[in-house]
Amino acid sequence: ERRRRLGRSLASLTHTDERAVQAAMYVAEVSALCALEDSPNANPATLLSRARAVVEETELGAAIDQGLALADDDAPFPEVVRSLGNTGFVIHSMGICTYCFARCGEEPITAIEAAIRAGGDTDTHAAIVGGWTGALHGAEALPPALVGRLQAGPFGASHLRGLAEALATE
């Protein structure tokens, strides 16, 4: 409950559309569920379904549900992108991210690459799916060369590790 209250407060600072606020809460909820100690053995689709409980907005919920259904149906990727849309609008982005993580979340690089290939707001998609896979599997699941390319600056690898540790202790 505390995470949800804080998430809503933070998301409301930068988003005026309730769909975007609830999408931010969904992203945070998935991340938190992935970071739980028993989660590395959890199915990504199961975690996404559990996080879906924070979404009350009908259109956003439908996009998340559709992403889950398409992943479960093993739909061809071009069909998935056509069905979900890829304009970068939050409804489309949450459907794409949900599909990519549900379908490929056991293989972090595959999931991130799928998020990029979907088009639209690719940096947002890759960041969300990358965050979820990182919270679920840890940085060691990513190629060391990729992790090593992160800059040491304010948003580099050490900053991301600190965020992950904070998430894990909340």
Residue-averaged pLDDT: 88
Determine the structural class based on helices, strands and strand pairing.
mainly alpha
- How large is the count of helical segments? 10
Shape: globular
Describe the structure.
Helix 2 (18-35) packs across helix 3 (44-51), helix 2 runs parallel beside helix 8 and helix 3 (44-51) packs antiparallel against helix 6 (90-104). It contains ten helices and no strands. The chain has 170 residues and is an all-alpha fold. The longest helix has 18 residues, at 18-35.
Brief descriptors of the model:
170 residues, mainly alpha
SSE layout and pairing:
Elements: H1 2-14, H2 18-35, H3 44-51, H4 58-73, H5 77-84, H6 90-104, H7 108-117, H8 122-137, H9 144-148, H10 157-169
Helix pairs in contact: 1-2, 2-3, 2-8, 3-6, 4-6, 6-7, 6-8, 7-8
Question: Brief overview, please?
Answer:
It contains 10 helices and no strands. By secondary structure, the chain is mainly α.
